[in-house]
């Protein structure tokens, strides 16, 4: 293999950072510039890259976080933004970078995991990752009361609203004790800026931010961001609406007093465990902390 220069954690190097952003845009359609400029790239997001000159040609990114599993905290590393410039593919660069990540974090995590697309499902088992089945949770909804007052749609282009979202993201409780995440506010802010910017609402009386979409009689709830315990019935009564018949949660709901059902879901999750740790079954990783 041709000798390329290895570099990591270069967010303060303007040339390399911009090259990284360009490769991410060309490969996945991701837009990191605004996320970086707003100050949401923290020390917990670390790209491992090969560089030629000032050009990033291959990358594997590390996200350092914690998983909450059945109320217990676990050290975790989530891999993301695995990409190689088309002119440099089939040279083993991604495999080389994966090995560097594994070497760097050996015995420093309980779980290492990632979400793979269908084109690379055979790649990650070579490094000790195993495919894990998830479940998607939903419930039938019959509104017993409906009070739509006190809901304000947030605008990420407004500085005050963005500060409010970031404050909640930084102080939030994990969305679930069965399977939640912590130290993932950087990932959440990316979703708020680039994925769900039109779907973020502040419930003033409950002091909760909810991220959701409604279409016809169905509602998808992507996140409920709270800093204190919440009563889910009060939240649903406000956001669901009179015509909502079914609600899907894109995380593992562990709220009291609701009847949920689940279906198997294949989202490309691969997990590498350290020691005797076991990844929980019958859960869904929160969508707003998928890197």
From TrEMBL:
GO molecular function: acyltransferase activity, transferring groups other than amino-acyl groups
Record InterPro entries: Acyl_CoA_acyltransferase, GNAT_dom, YpeA/RimI_acetyltransf
Keywords associated with the record: Acyltransferase, Transferase
PROSITE patterns linked: GNAT
Xref: CDD domains: NAT_SF
Keyword Hydrolase: no
Coiled coil: none
Residue span, N-acetyltransferase domain: 8-152
Bilayer-spanning residue ranges: none
Source species, domain of life: Bacteria
Name of the molecule in the record: GNAT family N-acetyltransferase
Source organism (scientific name): Paenibacillus faecis
Organism ancestry: Bacteria, Bacillati, Bacillota, Bacilli, Bacillales
């Amino acid at each position: 293999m041709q000798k390329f220069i290895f570099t990591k954690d270069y967010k303060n190097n303007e040339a390399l950072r911009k090259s990284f952003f360009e490769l991410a845009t060309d490969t996945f359609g991701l837009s990191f510039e605004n996320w970086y400029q707003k100050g949401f790239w923290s020390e917990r997001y670390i790209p491992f890259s090969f560089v030629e000159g000032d050009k990033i040609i291959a990358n594997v990114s590390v996200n350092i976080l914690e998983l909450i599993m059945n109320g217990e905290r676990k050290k975790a590393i989530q891999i993301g933004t695995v990409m190689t410039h088309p002119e440099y593919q089939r040279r083993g660069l991604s495999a080389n970078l994966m090995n560097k990540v594994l070497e760097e974090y050996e015995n420093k995590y309980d779980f290492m995991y990632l979400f793979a697309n269908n084109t690379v499902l055979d790649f990650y088992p070579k490094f000790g990752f195993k495919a894990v089945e998830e479940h998607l949770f939903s419930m039938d909804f019959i509104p017993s009361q409906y009070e739509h007052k006190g809901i304000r749609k947030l605008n990420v282009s407004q500085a005050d609203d963005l500060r409010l979202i970031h404050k909640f993201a930084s102080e939030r409780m994990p969305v679930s004790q069965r399977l939640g995440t912590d130290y993932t506010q950087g990932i959440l802010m990316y979703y708020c800026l680039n994925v769900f910017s039109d779907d973020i609402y502040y419930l003033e009386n409950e002091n909760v931010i909810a991220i959701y979409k409604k279409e016809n009689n169905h509602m998808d709830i992507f996140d409920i961001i709270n800093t204190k315990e919440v009563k889910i019935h009060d939240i649903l009564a406000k956001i669901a609406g009179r015509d909502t018949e079914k609600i899907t949660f894109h995380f593992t709901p562990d709220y009291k007093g609701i009847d949920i059902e689940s279906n198997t879901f294949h989202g490309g999750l691969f997990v590498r465990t350290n020691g005797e740790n076991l990844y929980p079954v019958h859960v869904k990783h929160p969508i707003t902390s998928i890197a």
